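Attaching the record inline, Q. Sequence:
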Amino acid sequence: MTTTPIILHQYDISPFSQKAQKMLGLKDLSWISVEMPMIAPKPHVEALTGGYRGTPVLQMGADVFVDNWMVARALDHAAPDLPAINARGPLSDGALYAWGERLFTPLLHSALAAYQSQWDADFLADRKRVFPDVEFDKLIAGDSDRCSQVRAYFGAVEAELALRGNYLGGEQADSWDIHVWGMVWMIHSALPDLLPIVERYSGVTAWYERLLSLGTGQRTDADIEVAWEALKAAEPRAYPSTPQDEPLKEWVGQSVQVSAGSADRGRANGRLLAVDHEQVVLAVTPLAGFEAQVWFPRFGYNITREGAVKESSQ
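Structure, as predicted:
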């Protein structure tokens, strides 16, 4: 078990932050919460990541992990003797991760339809920037097709639990449960119109309570200074070698940008240290004289050379 403090940059009302918190609860870890703003600008987290501003972001010393896929891998690496989050192998774990991302879409649309008239102009403008493919003006609260989609997703969860037992993988909770649980949490906390759909499934309801009882580990709240001190005090961990047959191998050492393909969460700018089938590692400088390594998933994120980005914008 690492002695480097675990710092989660996040805000509590995000279902993706809740997923990360549940990962920490599954392993019963002590961790520090540093709250980030809900909307841009997010100067501290953008400095830490080189420009990415999504939530959550996990920091362990001079290593920074973006996206819950990398958060799970980082925690399993840091605490391998505790229950595994990614317990099944990259394809099976990745499949449930992607399934959870698909489930988020109808829930997001339900939230946007239900609440957009209540948001102030700045928050609404931010969400329109983050989700450029969503036609905000056409979303209808209580849309029948969207409700049917939600029912279909949770019907599948109910059927899987009937086959597997207490958890989606059997008798031990892992990432399969966490990626679905975060979406049920979103319904319980913000989407009361959808809650009756979930509550029709007794197996899902009992499963949700079991996950809830796992808690979120031992949390301490702190301000950004604890993150800067952790960055200064630690040496980055070893990063993987880039395979000889990696198509982007010749980009290693060059300035690149990394961005999420599914939403506008900002572009991270840094020097490419490594890329393989699992991850991308960038070097960024959050503080003068101190470098951080920022770890992104390989799938779901796009890499462009900085020069190519500038040329395409001219």
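The domain at 90-213 is CATH 1.20.1050.10 (Glutathione S-transferase Yfyf (Class Pi); Chain A, domain 2). The first helix runs from residue 15 to 26.

More tomorrow.
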